[in-house]
Amino acid sequence: MLGIVRQKMLEQSLKKIPPAVSVLRSYSSAAKQMTIRDALNSALDEEMSADSKVFLMGEEVGEYQGAYKITKGLLDKYGPERVLDTPITEAGFTGVAVGAAYYGVKPVVEFMTFNFSMQAIDHIINSAAKTNYMSSGQISVPIVFRGPNGAAAGVGAQHSQCYAAWYASCPGLKVLAPYSSEDARGLLKAAIRDPDPVVFLENELLYGESFPVSDEVLDSSFCLPIGKAKIERKGKDVTIAAYSKMVGYALKAAETLEKDGIDAEVINLRSIRPLDRSMINASVRKTNRLVTVEEAFPQHGVGAEICASIVEESFAYLDAPVERIAGADVPMPYAANLERMAVPQVEDIVRAAKRTCYRSVS
Amino acid sequence: MALSHLAASASRSSSLLKPLSSALSLRRSISGDNSPLTVETSVPFTSHQCEAPSRSVETNPKELLTFFRDMALMRRMEIAADSLYKAKLIRGFCHLYDGQEAVAVGMEAAITKKDCIITAYRDHCTFVSRGGTLLEVFAELMGRQAGCSKGKGGSMHFYKKDSNFYGGHGIVGAQVPLGCGLAFAQKYSKDETVTFALYGDGAANQGQLFEALNISALWDLPAILVCENNHYGMGTAEWRAAKSPAYYKRGDYVPGLKVDGMDALAVKQACKFAKEHALKNGPIILEMDTYRYHGHSMSDPGSTYRTRDEISGVRQERDPIERIRKLILSHDLATEKELKDVEKEVRKEVDDAIAQAKESPMPEPSELFTNVYAKGLGVESFGADRKEVAFLREAMHDYSFLQMEKSFYALSFIAQRSHSSVGTAHPVLIYPGLYWEDSFSTKKEEACA
């Protein structure tokens, strides 16, 4: 306890060091603010410009400018041969897109939400994910499936599910979940350039949020590696691993925990498959405590996989049981108060982190 | 041009009625009587692989006045929902049906509550025509206990099983195979009833539709597929989504009928015809040529892919309520003032229902965990933090929850914490982290092994 107080005082004195150092720790030198929407739009624009094989397909992506305006302006710029409005037939157009990818062109398929991808999931798994293996390398499938994933606000049970765990369990697929604008740009570009099928899970509620982006991020050649997580906030008392919107919640929780003398390390997973097991394990070996956070249903989820990985690789380093914060184990209710209870809140993450530190949670 | 038709037929068929109506005019009530009236539909039916029914529809003053009232109610309800959405009392998705009311009322007039209806997410008016109350509609839209799904479903998930209304579905096209399944069960149970599975022009291209249609035709199911063709699938016009927008012909070997969906009497005639057909010969497709005034949903202005002239043109020439109003007036079944009074009454009904719905409380926190399963699993069901209750109960030394009755009896410990909730000033009860499912089911005894 005293150790924590001493460490806290050290941290505070460290914070008095000129800002450049502390800024470098978390962000590249912030020059501009960019929304996720603009990040995704610019990434699509640049990749389409760089490679004429890249084309977009989806409902309302063209004339409507995108259901969430992610593909705004692209029809005007690249024409109807490269930005295709489809009928509301996911199974059909996904199959068509995967077939096109077999031939060598590079589709970027938009699902209006990933809930609708269930209509097409046979093609994503059986036609896209497994083909490189079944053909022993002859046919690779350079396709990207992107769209909003997870809970939005008041959209009910059939429109709120998170599919990260489902897709991430399938070998042959790569599954990415950006949080910030830097993530959105870098990971989408990487996904489009990748020769394998990539499931790109965005978040509707993050589309309008702004994040600082450096000049490096704005460069058209910017790309992030697939399979690498990012430490959003360095800490030493407890590791909080999250993806997508929950990274923001984890960062807020870390601020609250700091006031109580708990220094949380927040990991932005970025890549659900492949999972950056080495980084997560390294972090837990340092902090000895882990909280996983996801919006999805808890059973067989991303948190469960991370926990298994820690138990397999770093069991001796754990000082407390792994805590899992996830969505409630129920279909998403519509009523506002029930919906709030069905998704993790910052308080839940704080409470779980305190439990790992054997601290009173009241 | 339709009006002259109506006027002509009115003078022909009601000349006998004139003396009667004038004699009764002193005692005539706005509800009308059952004396038969024949009206011609606006346009003849177009058929595919079958013989079209007659254009002359049998009706009566009472029915026409009911049509007027019901459609006016639906119209007012949808417009009120628009305002509530803008006032942020309704969240998420809200798909409005104004313009399409004739399909809901016309269909209901041709069938019984033993016939099944299933539709997609534009379901508020269909729910009402099946007997749902305004309070249930508004309370559900606002996420309150008095809602038809107790606030847990939302706009897209209205249900009324006791009237055989099966929802209320969010995934485009999914309701069609489900509807064919209802028809299967009706045939299986030898009920001599039919199912109407409604879908839009956007959903008409879904593969699952054709799979279900194939099965229905093979097995002679009493399924009636009703395409509510409002010409736009979200922002995409029908000609941009379908190679063949003649939806009534898309069944190929399945007969079809094209109907003016803005004419409630045509809809009634077509549904009556379809029901008779389906009971004898298996599936049939009805294409209702209709129009929605609002955009696809409240987040769609509805004007980026169609012109305002088009929208106002349809409103002027084809509005379903205006058609019935003109019919009523030309047949002298009510005065203009009486009809305006009906509209005023309806408006008041809607306002009262909204006020009542606003009084309805939000669902209890324990409702988060109910109805996941029909009888409950007798196992733990977790909230976002599965350990919260475990901690709290130890801290409070409260073991009352541990008393188990014969069946799995749950007690979830609810503590208070303050956090800003949606618009309320007082602290909101938090949820239990650990909960034994379905403790309050009346089937407790059965659940116990």
UniProtKB/TrEMBL annotation, chain A:
<comment type="function">
    <text>The pyruvate dehydrogenase complex catalyzes the overall conversion of pyruvate to acetyl-CoA and CO(2). It contains multiple copies of three enzymatic components: pyruvate dehydrogenase (E1), dihydrolipoamide acetyltransferase (E2) and lipoamide dehydrogenase (E3).</text>
</comment>
<dbReference type="InterPro" id="IPR005475">
    <property type="entry name" value="Transketolase-like_Pyr-bd"/>
</dbReference>
<feature type="domain" description="Transketolase-like pyrimidine-binding">
    <location>
        <begin position="34"/>
        <end position="209"/>
    </location>
</feature>
<keyword id="KW-0786">Thiamine pyrophosphate</keyword>
<keyword id="KW-0809">Transit peptide</keyword>
<comment type="function">
    <text>The pyruvate dehydrogenase complex catalyzes the overall conversion of pyruvate to acetyl-CoA and CO2.</text>
</comment>
<dbReference type="InterPro" id="IPR029061">
    <property type="entry name" value="THDP-binding"/>
</dbReference>
<keyword id="KW-0670">Pyruvate</keyword>
<dbReference type="Pfam" id="PF02780">
    <property type="entry name" value="Transketolase_C"/>
</dbReference>
<dbReference type="GO" id="GO:0006086">
    <property type="term" value="P:pyruvate decarboxylation to acetyl-CoA"/>
</dbReference>
<keyword id="KW-0630">Potassium</keyword>
<keyword id="KW-0479">Metal-binding</keyword>
<protein>
    <recommendedName>
        <fullName>Pyruvate dehydrogenase E1 component subunit beta</fullName>
        <ecNumber>1.2.4.1</ecNumber>
    </recommendedName>
</protein>
<dbReference type="GO" id="GO:0004739">
    <property type="term" value="F:pyruvate dehydrogenase (acetyl-transferring) activity"/>
</dbReference>
<dbReference type="Pfam" id="PF02779">
    <property type="entry name" value="Transket_pyr"/>
</dbReference>
<keyword id="KW-0560">Oxidoreductase</keyword>
<dbReference type="InterPro" id="IPR027110">
    <property type="entry name" value="PDHB_mito-type"/>
</dbReference>
<dbReference type="GO" id="GO:0046872">
    <property type="term" value="F:metal ion binding"/>
</dbReference>
<keyword id="KW-0496">Mitochondrion</keyword>
<dbReference type="InterPro" id="IPR033248">
    <property type="entry name" value="Transketolase_C"/>
</dbReference>
<dbReference type="InterPro" id="IPR009014">
    <property type="entry name" value="Transketo_C/PFOR_II"/>
</dbReference>
<dbReference type="GO" id="GO:0005759">
    <property type="term" value="C:mitochondrial matrix"/>
</dbReference>
TrEMBL record, chain B:
<feature type="region of interest" description="Disordered">
    <location>
        <begin position="297"/>
        <end position="316"/>
    </location>
</feature>
<keyword id="KW-0670">Pyruvate</keyword>
<keyword id="KW-0786">Thiamine pyrophosphate</keyword>
<dbReference type="InterPro" id="IPR017597">
    <property type="entry name" value="Pyrv_DH_E1_asu_subgrp-y"/>
</dbReference>
<dbReference type="Pfam" id="PF00676">
    <property type="entry name" value="E1_dh"/>
</dbReference>
<feature type="compositionally biased region" description="Basic and acidic residues">
    <location>
        <begin position="306"/>
        <end position="316"/>
    </location>
</feature>
<comment type="function">
    <text>The pyruvate dehydrogenase complex catalyzes the overall conversion of pyruvate to acetyl-CoA and CO(2). It contains multiple copies of three enzymatic components: pyruvate dehydrogenase (E1), dihydrolipoamide acetyltransferase (E2) and lipoamide dehydrogenase (E3).</text>
</comment>
<dbReference type="InterPro" id="IPR029061">
    <property type="entry name" value="THDP-binding"/>
</dbReference>
<feature type="domain" description="Dehydrogenase E1 component">
    <location>
        <begin position="69"/>
        <end position="365"/>
    </location>
</feature>
<protein>
    <recommendedName>
        <fullName>Pyruvate dehydrogenase E1 component subunit alpha</fullName>
        <ecNumber>1.2.4.1</ecNumber>
    </recommendedName>
</protein>
<keyword id="KW-0560">Oxidoreductase</keyword>
<dbReference type="InterPro" id="IPR050642">
    <property type="entry name" value="PDH_E1_Alpha_Subunit"/>
</dbReference>
<dbReference type="InterPro" id="IPR001017">
    <property type="entry name" value="DH_E1"/>
</dbReference>
<comment type="subunit">
    <text>Tetramer of 2 alpha and 2 beta subunits.</text>
</comment>
